[in-house]
């Protein structure tokens, strides 16, 4: 390897700023306001995950891929972006979409079984919430490249899971982004499993972040359960992309605490002991310990955060439980901007 390529390699171990005991292991922490904002985001994301799972059991959602345990990734991915930046989510990123400002009720429209995205992607700069693996990544590169051509300071945050890295779209997106020097951050949430397939069955690379060097993209690894570290690493990646340094690749090492979806039986492919080992690494508990040790978090403030989260969950619950009568004419209204003669004839017969 030439000396010029070494700067593309990720760190030997994931970047960590706050240990599992809540103590800072490095000095370069985000400021106190950012950490407090992150804690509110974590608490809200956890509560939305819990409420969504309850709605599945009540038959109000068709399916829900929970991000329980991955909330640090969800919150940080949204919070490091400017208003003009774009977020390209996966099916497991409802919490990130909500943190970006989209109404959770609208964010869950797809998972409720509705026929459309549920929200206006342009309002909050959030691409459609869809389920195909990695297909959103080339689209993210396209948006980033278009912004660069127009001279806009836009950065695109493209989310992906470890399973998505086994798809051709992932590799095509990285290659195009590198060649075009597109300002996009590929953020991989490595939660150890692609449904039931463990990471060891997907790749032989030292880490997923190492895949960047093959395309000329800088890679980095971060402790995905340490929200302070995720904020810092993603902020650095976004700043680099915005400064014209091209695409960045960040791998977060985290864990999916719950089943892949409500239709999955995770006990068939992983043990209870494996899951239990990640309990102490809970991103919320870790940050709470840190902020309490520094006298920044009181019982009163924590109560206010939980109340705010509960209010948002209640609003989501009420919205999802609201029955909306379908309008059959919608089947014809949103196919083409200008309906064809055939569509008009079909619509008249409906």
From TrEMBL:
Coiled-coil portions: none
Cofactor requirements of the protein: thiamine diphosphate
Tagged with keyword Transcription regulation: no
GO molecular function terms noted in the UniProt entry: magnesium ion binding; oxidoreductase activity, acting on the aldehyde or oxo group of donors, disulfide as acceptor
Top-rank taxon: Bacteria
One Pfam family from the record: E1_dh
Keywords carried by this UniProt record: Oxidoreductase, Pyruvate, Thiamine pyrophosphate
Alphabetized InterPro entries for the sequence: Alpha-ketoacid_DH_E1_comp (IPR050771), DH_E1 (IPR001017), PdhA/BkdA (IPR017596), THDP-binding (IPR029061)
Any Gene Ontology biological process: branched-chain amino acid catabolic process
Gene3D superfamilies: 3.40.50.970
Domain Dehydrogenase E1 component, residue spans: 45-312
Keyword Glycoprotein tagged: no
Protein's name according to its UniProt entry: Pyruvate dehydrogenase E1 component alpha subunit
Natural source organism: Paractinoplanes atraurantiacus
């Amino acid at each position: 390897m030439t000396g010029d390529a070494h700067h593309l390699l990720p760190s030997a171990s994931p970047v960590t700023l706050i240990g599992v005991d809540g103590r800072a292991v490095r000095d370069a922490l985000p400021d106190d306001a950012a950490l407090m904002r992150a804690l509110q985001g974590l608490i809200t994301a956890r509560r939305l995950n819990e409420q969504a799972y309850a709605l599945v059991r009540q038959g109000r959602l068709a399916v829900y891929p929970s991000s329980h345990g991955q909330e640090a990734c969800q919150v940080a991915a949204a919070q490091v972006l400017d208003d003009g930046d774009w977020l390209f989510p996966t099916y497991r990123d409802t919490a990130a979409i909500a943190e970006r400002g989209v109404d959770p009720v609208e964010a869950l429209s797809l998972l409720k079984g509705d026929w459309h995205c549920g929200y206006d992607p342009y309002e909050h700069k959030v691409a459609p919430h869809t389920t195909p693996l990695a297909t959103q990544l080339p689209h993210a590169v396209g948006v980033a490249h278009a912004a660069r051509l127009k001279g806009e300071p836009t950065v695109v945050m493209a989310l992906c899971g470890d399973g998505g890295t086994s798809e051709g779209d992932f590799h095509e997106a990285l290659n195009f982004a590198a060649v075009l020097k597109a300002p996009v951050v590929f953020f991989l949430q490595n939660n150890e499993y692609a449904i039931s397939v463990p990471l060891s069955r997907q790749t032989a690379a030292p880490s997923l972040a190492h895949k960047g060097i093959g395309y000329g993209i800088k890679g980095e690894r971060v402790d995905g359960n340490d929200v302070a570290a995720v904020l810092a690493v993603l902020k650095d990646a976004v700043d680099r992309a915005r400064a014209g340094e091209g695409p960045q690749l960040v791998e977060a090492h985290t864990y999916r605490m719950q089943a892949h979806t409500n239709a999955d039986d995770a006990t068939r492919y992983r043990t209870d002991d494996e899951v239990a080992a990640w309990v102490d690494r809970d991103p919320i508990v870790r940050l709470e310990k840190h902020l309490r040790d520094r006298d920044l978090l009181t019982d009163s403030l924590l109560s206010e955060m939980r109340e705010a989260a509960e209010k948002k969950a209640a609003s989501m619950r009420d919205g999802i439980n609201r029955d909306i009568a379908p309008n059959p004419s919608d089947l014809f209204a949103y196919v083409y901007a200008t309906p064809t003669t055939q569509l008009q004839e079909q619509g008249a017969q409906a």
